[in-house]
C-alpha cells in the first residue's frame, strides 16, 4: 500500500474578504507543482462564503463538479434553467461537458462552508447536466454511506468517471475496512471533523491521506469523526 499525507496546514490559502478558501491542490493563484492532483481528483477546495456573497455566473467545461455544503444555505442557478438551495445534508453535482454557466451564492446571512470538488471525467464533450439530492435521509452511523458513483441507478449522485464517494460518521474507537471498488483506483481520505487513523498515520481535522496500490485498508476513528472518502482512478485519461 502506498500513501501520501497532506496536513491541513500544508494547503494553499486565499483570503478574498467575502471568500476564504483552503486549496488542497493547485488552484487559481496557488500553485504547487507537487500538489496538482491525486489521480483524477483535480480540486478539493474548503470554502467559506460570507452572507449575501458568492460566485456570480461563470463558465466551466469538461469537468465533473461536486459540492458538499457543511454549514449554511447555498443558492444555485445555471443557464439550463436549474435553480435551488443546497444545505448541509445535501450534495450537488454538475457535468460541465460542452459548457455550463452557473452561479453559487450564499442564500442567507449565515456564512456558508462547503467542499468544492472537481473530478476529471472519462468522457469529454458530454451534454451538460445538473443534479442535487439530500443524502441526510439515508445517513448511517458507523458505516460507509455511498453518496456518489458512476451509476445513475445507484445510491447518491453519479458522474462520468469510475469514482465512488462515501461519507463515514464513526464513533470513537470504531473501525471498518474499506474495499476498493475497481483495480487501479486510489482513495483520498479527508477528515471533515474529528480524528482518524489509517495504519500508523493519524489524521486530524481537515488532514487527508491518499491511499493506493492496495485492495483495502482499515479506517479507525480516534475521536468521533466525520470523514469523506473519494475513490477515483489513479490514471489520468488520455
From TrEMBL:
Domain Pirin N-terminal: 12-119
InterPro entries: Pirin, Pirin_N_dom, Quercetinase_C, RmlC-like_jellyroll, RmlC_Cupin_sf
Domain Quercetin 2,3-dioxygenase C-terminal cupin: 147-232
One Pfam family here: Pirin_C_2
Family in the record: Belongs to the pirin family.
Record protein name field: Pirin family protein
Protein source organism: Chryseobacterium oryzae
Lineage: Bacteria, Pseudomonadati, Bacteroidota, Flavobacteriia, Flavobacteriales
Amino acid at each position: 500500500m502506498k500513501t501520501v499525507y497532506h496536513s491541513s496546514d500544508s494547503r494553499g490559502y486565499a483570503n478574498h474578504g467575502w471568500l476564504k478558501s483552503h486549496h488542497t491542490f493547485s488552484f487559481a493563484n496557488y500553485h504547487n507543482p507537487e500538489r496538482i492532483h491525486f489521480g483524477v481528483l483535480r480540486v478539493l477546495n474548503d470554502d467559506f462564503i460570507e452572507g449575501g456573497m458568492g460566485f456570480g455566473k461563470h463558465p466551466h467545461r469538461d469537468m465533473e463538479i461536486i459540492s458538499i455544503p457543511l454549514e449554511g444555505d447555498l443558492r444555485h442557478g445555471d443557464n439550463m434553467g436549474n435553480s435551488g438551495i443546497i444545505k448541509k445534508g445535501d450534495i450537488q453535482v454538475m457535468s460541465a461537458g460542452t459548457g455550463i454557466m452557473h452561479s453559487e451564492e450564499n442564500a442567507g446571512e449565515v456564512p456558508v462552508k462547503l467542499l468544492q470538488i472537481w473530478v476529471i471525467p472519462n468522457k469529454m464533450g458530454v451534454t451538460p447536466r445538473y443534479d442535487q439530492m439530500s443524502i441526510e435521509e439515508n445517513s448511517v452511523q458507523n458505516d460507509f454511506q455511498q453518496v456518489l458513483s458512476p451509476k445513475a441507478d445507484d445510491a447518491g449522485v453519479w458522474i462520468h468517471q469510475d469514482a465512488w464517494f462515501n461519507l463515514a460518521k464513526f464513533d470513537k474507537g470504531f473501525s471498518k475496512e474499506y474495499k476498493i471498488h475497481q483495480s487501479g483506483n486510489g482513495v483520498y481520505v479527508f477528515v471533515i471533523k474529528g480524528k482518524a487513523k489509517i495504519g500508523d498515520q493519524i489524521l486530524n481535522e481537515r488532514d487527508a491521506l491518499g491511499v493506493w496500490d492496495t485492495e483495502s485498508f482499515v479506517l479507525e476513528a480516534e475521536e468521533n469523526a466525520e470523514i469523506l472518502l473519494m475513490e477515483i482512478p489513479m490514471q489520468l485519461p488520455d
